Amino acid sequence: MSQESLGLIETIGLAAAIAAADAAVKSANVTLVGYELSKGDGMAVVKLRGDVGAVQAAISAAQAEAARVGQVVATRVIARPSLDLTKIVDSRETVGIKRPEPTRAEPVATAVQEEPSAAPAPTPQVVETAPSETSGQAETPASPVIEPTFAEPTAYGNPPPPTDVSEPIDLPQSTPPQRPDRHQRRR
């Protein structure tokens, strides 16, 4: 049973870490796990996996490249890491790690409830008025007068707001709070 080795290189600066990761992956048959940024000092750790010899060669190449670009803080090769160590190496802070997709349960079919539609608007009643018999003018046929007997509903069934704006609305006038004169001395 062959277990992959773990290689770590810690640098100051992300540019040095990226250059180290590039040199490591190009120099040997290793897999880049990802990188992790520290909480302070601008340090970054590059994590590699592969055979012991390949990881050692990759870390050596990465160390030389990172020293050329920036500063190397530490390097380490762990030949046979414990299985419990994967929890630390494959942490949430590791950028670039491929996490398994969470399995999603099939959605439960729910009954689709349709929104209640507005009731059809009632038709206005047509009221015909008879011409007045007292007028001495020639009678003309009466034109129908449409008198609405309902308020037109709005989108939510509420009556429309009143449109009468004949009365002005008096709003209270506010004055800014008075500040003491800044030239006065405090006593």
Automatic annotation (TrEMBL):
Question: Which residues, by range, are in coiled-coil regions?
Answer: none
According to its record, what are the GO cellular component terms? bacterial microcompartment
Q: Which InterPro entries match?
A: BMC_dom, BMC_shell, CcmK-like_sf, CcmK/CsoS1_BMC
Keywords in alphabetical order:
Bacterial microcompartment
Q: What residue spans carry the Polar residues bias annotation?
A: 131-140
Record Gene3D superfamilies = 3.30.70.1710
- Give start and end of each BMC domain: 5-90
Renumbered to this chain, region (Disordered) spans 96-187
Q: Where in the cell is it found?
A: Bacterial microcompartment
Q: Which family does it belong to?
A: Belongs to the bacterial microcompartments protein family.
Could you tell me what this protein is called? Microcompartment protein
Specify the species. Answer: Tianweitania populi
